[in-house]
Design a protein that fits this description.
Number of strands: 10
Structural class: alpha+beta
Strand content: 15-25%
CATH class of the largest domain: Alpha Beta
CATH topology of the largest domain: Aminoglycoside 3'-phosphotransferase, Chain: A, domain 2
Shape: globular
Number of domains: 2
Oligomer: single chain
CATH superfamily of the largest domain: Aminoglycoside phosphotransferase (APH), C-terminal lobe
CATH architecture of the largest domain: Alpha-Beta Complex
Distance between the termini: 61 Å
Helix content: 40-55%
């Protein structure tokens, strides 16, 4: 009998990947193999795609869903690149490996950063502090996007031809991917192919950047220090990619800043590249193309889009107050 979850349990991933008792034997084995001491306490992290646990209050063990096995190499590489850049508050990776059980379990062990996720404490943070956090986050994003794009054999290596091929395939499949989400907005559904064809999404003439790709409120850690809330860390680099920078904004405004246009505007001011109309159209297009995106939350962010709402209306509702 294995020490980790069984293949049958993994088929019901959403019901068990945050249950400490299911994972305690496997986490204990990781600790033993890596010489990190015994398992004394185990607390589930915020739900995401993989199983993440806070161990003994000071370590974070991330166990990758077997379907996302390639994410481990991507995340380890992202942390290596980030560690070489000042000003990016990512956790330090201590070790990574895999355990062959009934399934192959890949893992990363990192230090636990202080603070709580922005999503947990947003309502407690004064407005002035939120604006300061938005600006600080803009500085951090700029630092991420100045990291040189790695060359092969890096798992993050991606050239312009590869990006353009991904865009081409994503544009083709987007109408079918979002057919259910767009059923209630037929005008938007009908406009989607033409809209995607009208926006410049390829890498032609534009530099590709290293991207975090999941700038959500769950992944931005903040803490109160000396009476002010500040950023304490940016976590979960498993979705890191190389691509056009507009792809990065899909989660930022609707999720991290909860559609607060003032915060997003302050972010871009600090980032040093104010959002304009064309960038807003590209960011909206990437909502339809994003690796994990469904349009349900974007439509909700558009304040209850009705059947006659088109994509230009969506762009305006999502981004208009940011750049006008």
């Amino acid at each position: 009998m294995g020490i980790g979850p069984t293949p049958e349990q993994v088929e019901n991933w959403s019901a068990m990947f945050t249950v400490p008792d299911v994972w305690a034997p496997l986490v204990a084995e990781v600790m033993h193999r890596e010489g990190l001491g015994s398992l004394e306490s185990l607390e589930a992290g915020l739900p995401g795609s993989n199983a993440v646990f806070i161990v003994n209050g000071s370590l974070v063990v991330k166990l990758f869903w077997p379907r996302f096995e390639e994410d481990q190499a991507r995340e380890v590489e992202a942390h290596r690149l980030v560690a070489e850049r000042p000003g990016i508050p990512a956790p330090r990776v201590l070790t990574a490996g895999r355990i062959e059980d009934d399934l192959t379990w890949r893992y990363i062990v990192s230090e636990r950063l202080p603070g709580l996720s922005l999503g947990e404490v947003r309502d407690q943070v004064p407005r002035a502090d939120m604006l300061r956090i938005a600006a600080e986050f803009g500085d951090i994003a700029r630092a991420i996007h100045t990291i040189p794009v790695p060359e092969p054999p890096s798992p993050l290596a991606r050239g312009r031809d590869q990006w353009d091929e991904w865009v081409h395939q994503a544009v083709i499949t987007a109408p079918a991917r979002h057919a259910t989400d767009l059923a209630s907005v037929p005008r938007m559904r009908d406009e989607l192919p033409g809209f995607l064809a009208s926006v410049e999404l390829t890498a032609s003439g534009n530099a590709l950047r290293v991207l975090h790709c999941d700038l959500t409120a769950d992944h931005l850690l903040i803490e109160e220090r000396e009476g002010r809330w500040r950023i304490a860390g940016l976590i979960d680099w498993g979705d890191a990619e190389v691509g056009r920078v507009d792809y990065e904004w899909v989660a930022l405004h609707p999720d991290c800043f909860a559609r607060d246009h003032d915060l997003t505007r302050e972010f871009f001011r600090a980032y040093g590249c104010p959002l304009d109309g064309e960038a807003a159209r590209r960011a909206t297009a990437y909502c339809f193309l994003h690796r994990f995106a469904t349009m349900g939350w974007v439509l909700a962010a558009a304040n209850g889009a009705g059947p006659d709402v088109g994509i230009d209306d969506l762009v305006e509702r999502l981004w208009g107050p940011v750049w006008r």
